[in-house]
């Protein structure tokens, strides 16, 4: 059974840094595309970054490029998102997800172009708050 446990969220001042992690069980990380998503208050869920299980290639949406770094540790079955220069607009619940159909990360996965959200496995989310 696929299961995620997320941790590391919290309150951080603007310009600060924070890392969140997602520990998986029930599957091997190198089989799936793995992503971080977020939902801000009153907004739709949006993709932030993803990493390919097969070769570790990564993708970032423009709003976080240069500030966020995604990585994974296959042995620990954990996916990380390190966030720096955080701003109030980064405030959201952050979720990790794995697409069981595609082993490679793509902008399509982050944008849910082909219904990836519905078929993916999701964590419970962790809150990140950056006060204005």
Describe this structure in words.
- The chain is mainly beta.
- It has helices spanning 107-111, 116-119, and strands spanning 3-7, 10-11, 18-25, 33-39, 46-52, 58-60, 68-73, 78-83, 92-99, 121-122, 126-129.
- The strands form two sheets. Strands 2, 4, 5, 6, 9, 10 and 11 form a seven-stranded mixed beta sheet that branches. It has a four-stranded antiparallel beta sheet with strand order 1-3-8-7, with no helix packed on it.
- The longest helix is centred in the C-terminal third of the chain and has 5 residues, at 107-111.
- The chain is globular, with a radius of gyration of 14 Å.
- The mean pLDDT is 94.
Outline the secondary-structure elements.
Elements: E1 3-7, E2 10-11, E3 18-25, E4 33-39, E5 46-52, E6 58-60, E7 68-73, E8 78-83, E9 92-99, H1 107-111, H2 116-119, E10 121-122, E11 126-129
Parallel strand pairs: 2-11
Antiparallel strand pairs: 1-3, 3-8, 4-5, 4-9, 5-6, 7-8, 9-10, 9-11
Quick tags:
132 residues; mainly beta
Average pLDDT value? Answer: 94
Q: Main β-sheet: number of strands, strand sense, barrel status?
A: 7 strands, mixed
Secondary-structure element string: EEEEEEEEEHHEE
Molecular shape: globular
Structural class: mainly beta
Proportion in β-strands: 35-45%
Q: How many strands? A: 11
Radius of gyration from CA coordinates: 14 Å
As residue ranges, the low-confidence spans are none
Task: State the helix count.
Answer: 2
- Cα(first) to Cα(last) distance is 40 Å
Q: Specify the helix fraction band.
A: under 10%
